[in-house]
Amino acid sequence: MKKLFGVLAALALVVGLGGLSPSQAAPSAPVPTGTITVSAAASLTDVFPVIAKAFMKKYPGTSVKFNFAGSSALVQQIIAGAPVDVLATASEPTMWQAVNAGHVGKPLLFAKNTMAIAMPPGNPAHVTGLPSLTQPGVLVAECAVAVPCGAAARDLLAKNSLTVKPVTLEIDVRAVLAKVMAGEVDAGIVYVTDVRSVGSKVSSVTIPAGQNVTTTYPIAAVNDSGNPTAATAFVDYVRYTPSALGILRAYGFAKPW
Amino acid sequence: MTVSADFALQRGAFELRLDVTLRPGEVTAVAGPNGAGKTSLLRALAGLERVSEGSIRMNGTVVDSPSTFVRPRDRRIGFVFQSYVLFPHLSVLENVAFGPRSRGTSKTRARQHARAVLEQLGIGWLADRRPSTLSGGQAQRVALARALATSPGLLLLDEPLAALDAQTKNELRTVLGEQLRAFEGCSLMVSHDPVDALLLADRVLVLEDGRVAQDDTPARIAAFPRTAYVAALMSLNLVRGIAGGGVITQADGSVVHIADHELTGPAAAVIRPESVVVHRQPPAGSARNVWQGVVSLVQPWEDRTRVHVEGPTPMIATVTALSRTELALTPGMPVWMSVKAVDVRSYPLAAAGPDASGGPHSLAP
Amino acid sequence: MKPGSRAPWFLVVPGVLALAFLLAPLLALLWRAPWGSLLEIVRSPVALDALRLSMITATAATVLATLLGVPLAWLIAKAQLPATGLVRALVLVPLLIPPVVSGVALLSAFGRRGAVGGFLYDSFGIQLPFTTAGVVLAEAFVAMPFLVIAVEGGFRSLNAEFDEAAGTLGASAWTSFRRVTLPLVAPALGAGMVLCWARALGEFGATITFAGNFPGVTQTMPLAVYEALESDPSAAIALSLLLILICVVILVVLRGHFLRPLAST
Predict the structure, then answer these.
(1) Looking at CA atoms only, how far is residue B27 from chain C in angstroms?
(2) Shared domain check, A162 and A196
(3) pLDDT, tens digit, for every residue of C116-140?
(4) For chain B, which terminus, N or C, has the lower number of CB atoms within 10 Å?
C-alpha cells in the first residue's frame, strides 16, 4: 500500500509540475516533457532511436518509446485506437490513409529513400543487378504489396519492365533483410538505408538512379495524442533540425525535396 | 507335448528353482502360498519371463535358456489369464478366432473353427457378443476356448476359477474337468483351491518359497502332506459316487449324507479332517454320517494329530493332542467316526472320466 | 444437476465469467463482421487459396505427426528408456517455446544453410523453406507434441496383458500392434489427431518464419488474415470468421465421435 501511495504521490507531483510549466508564465512555446510513443516504419528502426536520443538530450524530461512495424500495420493500429503520439510511415499513400481517417494532423515530409538489392554475404547466386532477379533458380524476397517497401519493389520492377516471382512476401522490410542475412533467399529488394544499417552482413547491388524508384517519408502528430506538446515537438525536430537531418543523411536517407 | 523344466528364475530377491517334467495328457495343478512362484512358473513356461539358469524344453527342443529364447508366439502354448484378458473390441468369435488367424489361417476357416470350439464348450450362442456383456462364467469359457483354438501342446491356466462365485465355480469346474480330460497335450493349472486339485488334477505340484515342496498325486498329498502348508491346504477327505436324494452312493454301496438334496448324477464330496469326530463308542447326536473303522495311523502334527482310519469309508480325522491322549488312540483300535451332513461339501462331477464312479481315494502310500 | 443439489456460487460465478471471457471476442467478431461483403471476400482467390492450402497442410501435417508420433509415444510409454522423463520433456518443448522461436530453430536445422537442410540442398537441390512442404514441416513440428502426449497416455493406460495374450496366441509383434494395441488406443489417437490438426491449422509464427508468405504456396489462412489486417481489416475479420467456422464445424462433428466412451463398443 505504501508503494502505491508513493507512486500516486509522484504522479500527482509530475502532473502538477507539468501544469506549472514555465510555458504558463512566459509567452514562449511550451517545453516538451513526458513520454511519447512513436510508431515508425520498419526501415526507420536504426535511425530513429538515434534521433530520439538527440531529442531527449535537447529536452531532458522527455522519453521516446518506439513501435516499429510495416507502415500499413501501424496505420491500422492507429485507426483501431492505439495510444500512439507520432506516426512516421515509409510512403505517402499509407500516411494519407491515416489522414483521411482523421487520425493524424498535417504530415511533413522528412526523408526520401531509394531501393537496393541485398544479397547474402558472398553473393552465392551471383546477382549483379535487377535483371539477375529474373533468372530461374534465383530466390527473391520482397515485402508484401500492402507495405510501402513492397509497393516500391513492384513499382521498381514495373519501371524496368521486369517480371520477378518472389518466393515470399514478408510483412516488413526487416523480415526481408532477415531472410537475406540467413541465406535462405538469394536476394531481397530493400531500401538503401537497410543495406547501410547492416553493413557487412549483406552484400548489395546499387540500382542506378535512372532505374530506381523513390519513396518519401512523412511524419505527423496523432490527433488523440496524450502528449501533444511533445508529439509536435518531435515532429518538428525530425523535420527541421539540422541535427536530425544530419543523422538521416548519415544513415543513407536523402532529403525529401 | 512333453515339457522338461529344469531351471532357476530370478526376480529381484526371489528365486524359483525346480526340475519337473510334464507329460502329454497329464493335468498338473500348481498350489502354494502367495509369492511361492506359481505364476512365475506359468509365465516362464509361456515365455513371458526368461530363466536365469538351466533350461526349458518342449518335445526336446530348448525354448528357454540363458543362450536361447523362443518367443511365446513360436511355442505351441495356450494361456488362460486370471483376468481372462479378452480383447474388448472384438466379438467372442473374433477373440477365439484370433489365435488361428494370427498363425495364418484364413478369416473364414478360423471363424469356422472358432465356432466349433465354442460349441464344444457349450457357448456357441455367445459368438457375436462383446466381452463386456459376458458374465464371469461365460468369459472364463471364452478364455478357455480361445486358448484351445490354437491346438496347443501345453495349456497353462492361471487361477481359472478364482474370479467366480461359488455356484458358477462348481458349474465351471465340471466344464473345465471335461475339457482338461479331453485335452491331449499337457496342462498346468495354478490354483489355491485344493478342491480344484483334487477334482481336476492327476498330479499336484506344491511350491513354497520358490521350491517344490511336494510333487505327487492329489490323494497322496492329501493323505501324506509334507509341510505344514500342504497339510493345512490339502488335508481333505474325498469321496466319489452317484448323488441322489441327499446321499452320495459309492461303488461299494456305502453312503455319505450330504446337505444338498438336489444334486444328482456323478458327484464328489469333500470332508475336512477337522470336521470328523472320532469316538470310542457308537455316537449319539444329530450327525447323519456315522462310520465304523479301525485306526491305521496316528500322525502327530504340530498342535494336532492326524488320525488315519481304515474301513468301508476311510477317513483322516484331525484331533487335538489332548483328545488323542484321552481317547488313547493307537493303531489297530476300532473307532466310530461322525460327520454332520452340513460339513460335507458336495460337487457335481463330469459324466465321462475314469474316476467318476470310482470309490474313495486309496490312502495307501 | 440432480434435484436438490445446487452448484456452489464460488464455482458458478467464475465459471460463467470464464465462459463470457472466452465467448466475448468471438461474439465481437460476429458483431463487427462485414456482412455485406462477406461472401465476396470469402470467395476471393486469396481467401480460397489460403483456405485450400490450410486444409491440405494441416491434414498432411497431422498424417506426418501420426506416422512419427505414434511410434515415439509407444517408445516413451512402453520401451523403458533410461530417461523417460527427460524424453517426454523434450517432446513437449515445441509446445512451450514461442512459435516464432520454433521457426528460427527450424531454419537452423532445415534452412538452406541449416544443419540438415544444407546437406539436402547441396546434395539433392532439395529446399524446404518457401515450399508447401516447408509449411507442413513447420506445422507438424509445433503440433506433434499434442498427438504424442495424447497417444502416450493411451499406451500407458493399456493393460500390458493384452499384448502378452496376443503373443501367446501366436500373433507377431506387428499383428498384435495392428489388431490389438492400435484399436484399443484408437480413442486417444483420435483425440490426439484432432488436437494436432487444430493446432496445425492455426499455426502462424513458425510458418511465416520458416516457410515465408506467398499466396497459393505458403500463405495459409492465419498468414492471409495477418496480411489482410495491414490493408483491409474488415477482410481480416471475414477471413477470421471463416477459419473459426470451419474449426467449429469440424470439432463439433468429431467431438461426439471421439468422446463417446469405449464401453459402447
Answers:
(1) 20
(2) yes
(3) 988 888 888 888 999 999 999 999 9
(4) C
